[in-house]
Amino acid sequence: MSSIHEQAMNYVYQQVLQRLMSYFTRAERIALQLLIQRLIVAAGGIERIGEFKVMVAHGGGKDSSYTLAFLRAAQLSIAGRSPATFSLRVATLRHPGVTARVMHNIHRSYSALFVYDDPRVELLMVDNKHVRPFNHRLPMSELNRDLNRRNLLMSGHLTAGDGRATFCNGCYLSMADFYERSSAWDKGVDALVSGDSPREQKQYMTWLLRATEKPERAGRALEFDEAVKACHDLSQDYSRELYGEALVEPEGPAISRSSRTSAPMLVSVYDLVGRDLEERWPLLTEFLGFQFDDLAFHFSESDCANPLLMAHMRGLQAQYVRGLSYEAGIGEYLQLAETLMRRKRMPARLVEHAMAAYDSSEKVLDRRALASAYAQEAFGLSEAQLTCLLFAPFVNRGNGLEPFLRSCHPGMLVALPDLHKALAGQVVPEQIWQWLNEVSGLTPALLGDLYTKAQVDFSGVNSLIARVRASDPDKHRIDIVNPDNGEVFKEVLSGR
Predict the structure, then answer these.
(1) Which terminus of the chain has a lower count of CB atoms within 10 Å, N or C?
(2) Going by DSSP bridges, is the β-strand pair 130-133/488-492 parallel, antiparallel, or unpaired?
(3) Per-residue confidence (pLDDT) for residue 365, from 0 to 100
(4) Are residues 360 and 231 in the same domain?
(5) Is the pLDDT reported for residue 70 higher than 80?
(6) Is residue 327 situated within a structural domain?
(7) What pTM did the predictor assign?
(8) Residues 435, 397 within the same domain
(9) Structural domain that includes position 23
(10) Of the residues 241, 256, 287, which one is the last residue of a structural domain?
C-alpha cells in the first residue's frame, strides 16, 4: 500500500469513527474507553496490541450489530492514537434463522463500518462446517439445508412438534462447533468477545453439564476446550438418538490447530454494552442500516428458532390437532410474545408494531402465507408436511396414524393396512411410498426408523432429547393457562 493510499484510508477510517461516535451517548463513550483499556490489558500492554486478534460472532440481530459497532469504535480509536491496533475477526453461522434479509443486515453494517477493505478485519461465515469468506449474496448450501430439514423432521416427529426440540436443539448444539472452527481458522484468535451476561453464560454451562450428565463439574467453570468437547460429544449423542449409529450429521473438515498455543480467552463486554434499545435506535437504523426481519417479531436475535414459524406451528396445531381455529392458535402465541416483549422492556411502539401484524383476519392470512413461504425456502417443507409432524403419526408403531388420516387425509383411510405394512418394511405398491414421502417429506428408511421408535417422554430422563429440553437454559419460556379447560401451554420464544 502506497503512503498516499494509506493516508487516504486512514482519513476514511477516522471519518467513520467520528460519525460512529456521534451516535454514542456520554455513558457509551465512557464505556468505550473502559473497553479499550480492557483489550489493552488482555493483549499484554499497548506495545502488543498490534499482535492481538479478537473474534466476535455476528448473528445479524440488533445485539450483535451493536456489539460489532462498539468493537469497531474501539479498534479505530486505538488506531488513531497508537502505531497499531488489534485485529478483528467477525464470524457468522449459517442456519435457517439467517435469512436473506438478515444477511443483508450484516452486509449493510459491514459497509457502514467500512470493514470490507480493512486488512485488520476478517469476515467469515461457517456453512455446513466449512469456513468461508463472508458473502451476503451466497445462499445457504444445499447440504446444510437438507441436514436442517432432516433434523427438523426427525426431532419434530419424535416430539410431536415440541418447539425447542424441533427448531432449536440441532442449531444450539452446532454453536460449539461454529466457535471452535471460526476461532481456530487460519492462525486462530487470542480472545472471544461476548455480550452475554455472566448469568447467561452460567445458564449455558449448567445446561451443558446437566445434558451430558456430568454434574460433578458444576462447581467449576469449564475451559474453552472442555466446553467445546462436551458440546461436540453431546451433539454426536443427540444425532445418534435421532438416526442411530448411521450418523447423518457430517463431521466436516478437520479443524486446524492454530499457531497460538492456548485456547482463546473470553472478554466480556456485557457490563459495557447498553441495553436501552431506544438509545441504540438511531445507531442501528440510521448508521448501520438495520432492518427488523418480518420473521422475527422484533425481539429476536437471529436465532435458530424463527418466531413467525413457531407462531405458524401453534396455529396449525390449533386448527388440525386440537380442533380449534388457526387464528385461535396464533392468539395464544401472541399472548406469549407480548408478555415476553414487555418482560424484556421492549419499547411500546415495537410491541404494538409486532402485534399489529396480526390485528385482522386478512393480516393473519398474510402472515400464514409468509410463514409457509419461509418454511419452503429454508427447509423445503410444505404446510402439509409441518402439519404431519404435529400429529407424530409414525412413532409408536404408527399408533397415531389413523387419527392423522381421519383429520387430514380421510381418503387414505382405506389404505391404512398398506401404510402399516410399508412402515413395517413389507412390500407394498409404489404409490403407498410415494404418498408417504409427499405427506411427510421423509425417506422410506427414516419413516421405518420412526415406526420402531417411541415418542419422547419429556417427564423422563432416558431420552437425551428430553434431558436437553428439560435442562434448556433458554430463559424465554412462559406458561399460560387456558381459562376454558385449565390446560397449561408452555412455549419457548427464541431470542436474546
Answers:
(1) N
(2) unpaired
(3) 95
(4) no
(5) yes
(6) yes
(7) 0.85
(8) yes
(9) 3-287
(10) 287
